[in-house]
Specification:
By secondary structure, this protein is α+β, with helices and mostly antiparallel strands. The protein is about 25% helix and about 40% strand. It contains four helices and seven strands. The strands form two sheets. A four-stranded antiparallel beta sheet has the order 1-2-3-4. Strands 5-7-6 form a three-stranded antiparallel beta sheet, covered by helices on one side. It starts with a strand and ends with a strand.
């Protein structure tokens, strides 16, 4: 499967909003918070927010590169989401690799970080396969529940 990053469209976002996941992964449901829905809708204008499509133009996922300040230093952070019907089927590494490779071509970064819920062992294994290593953790309250996140980083 050959994957390509392209600018998001309103149609893409309308599909993203319908994405729901099974079991513990329902944490990632896009329709669970109005704030998440609005964030997706507003992202259509962002230069570093992309849709991921296959060679036939089918929507496979989405990603966004954004800046976070930590200890007076700007960090480039990646957020990714794969279409629910494709998760758990062995596509994770090619999905993440395509995003990183094409993101580097566009943004020329030499360091990239991401945060992943600690219960998402599938994603953590995928990120480790792609060279990311744990560098820290934090907790955040989401929808009234406390979640632990693992911060992962990679240099290029």
């Amino acid at each position: 499967m050959e994957l390509t990053l392209r600018r998001r469209t309103g149609e893409d976002i309308n599909e993203f909003i319908t994405w729901t996941y099974e079991g513990i992964y329902s944490f990632y449901d896009n329709n669970s918070q109005q704030e998440k829905i609005e964030g997706l809708r507003e992202s259509v204008h962002l230069e570093r927010a992309f849709s991921v499509v296959d060679e036939d133009g089918n929507l496979i996922g989405n990603c966004e590169f954004y800046d976070v300040e930590e200890d007076g230093k700007e960090l480039l952070v990646l957020g990714v989401q794969m279409k629910p019907s494709l998760t758990g089927n062995g596509y994770g590494s090619s999905f993440v690799k395509a995003i990183i490779d094409q993101g580097r071509d566009r943004l020329k970064f030499t360091h990239l970080e991401l945060a992943v819920a600690d219960f998402n062992k599938r994603a953590i294994r995928t990120y480790e396969k792609e060279g990311f290593r744990e560098r820290g953790e934090f907790s955040n309250e989401i929808r009234g529940q406390e979640y632990r996140f693992v911060i992962m980083a990679r240099d290029f």
